[in-house]
Design brief:
With 225 residues, the chain is of the alpha/beta class. It is built from 6 helices and 10 strands. Strand 7 and strand 8 (150-152) form a beta hairpin.
Length: 225
């Protein structure tokens, strides 16, 4: 059995109501719900929210909303692991159930990526998540002072060729697979046994600001073509 949990609180600050704002004609959360329903991987698609309007929209789009999230898990400081732990407990899931946290703002998620995450989980990963490479070597990062002066954070990397530097990856902000028991134990997502599903940076936008939203809309239009 596999369950998709889409966390979608009502109180986002930088983009108010971003989880249900229209994104190319569909409430943003609708893209994640559709991806989860259409990929053929999940027995249940559940939205975890504290918000009545989000709850109604999610149901209209075909997701379950069997509970409302408590206020202490719907503030700016609530982390992903406690939110999914609450869902696992509220749904009374067996320990072995594969649970995927799919963000409500993931319009670029693809079925093949979700399937690869499930494969990695079944192969023994503690968690499996979407990751993407940094476009520029992080070893060449600069420090900028208040007066505008710049210097390398690690001067030892100055003479190393960029092709000889180890590639660095970051969380793509799309999905995280884990067993129900792993979520319930509140094991940190970046556990040493976690594995990454590599995505091209051309399909990754972390939508936190209005500028991110505009870039995501433009990228979505290009990819749709």
């Amino acid at each position: 059995m596999a369950v998709c949990v889409i966390p979608a609180r009502g109180g986002s600050k930088r983009i108010p109501r971003k989880n249900i704002l229209s994104f190319h004609g569909t409430p943003m959360i609708g893209w994640s719900i559709a991806a989860a329903r259409d990929c053929g991987l999940f027995d249940r698609v559940v939205v975890s929210t504290d918000d009545a309007e989000i709850s109604d929209i999610a149901r209209d789009l075909g997701a379950e909303v069997p509970f409302l999230r408590p206020d202490n898990l719907a503030n700016d400081h609530a982390g992903t692991v406690p939110v999914i732990t609450h869902a696992v407990e509220a749904l009374a899931l067996d320990d072995d159930v594969a649970v995927c946290c799919l963000y409500a703002t993931a319009p670029f998620v693809r079925a093949a990526d979700l399937a690869e995450g499930l494969r990695l989980l079944q192969a023994g990963a503690s968690y499996a998540m979407a990751v993407t490479r940094y476009d520029y070597p992080i070893q060449r990062a600069l420090r900028r002072g208040e007066d505008g002066a710049v210097s390398m954070i690690d001067p030892a990397q100055m003479q190393v060729r960029s092709q000889d530097l180890e590639p660095a990856w970051h969380d793509a902000g799309q999905f995280y697979w884990g067993r129900a028991a792993t979520w319930a134990s509140q094991l940190p997502v970046f556990d040493r046994r976690a594995h990454g599903v590599g995505l091209p940076s051309s399909r990754v936008v972390d939508i936190d600001t209005p500028e991110d939203w505009e870039r995501a809309e433009a990228l979505f239009q290009v990819l749709q073509r």
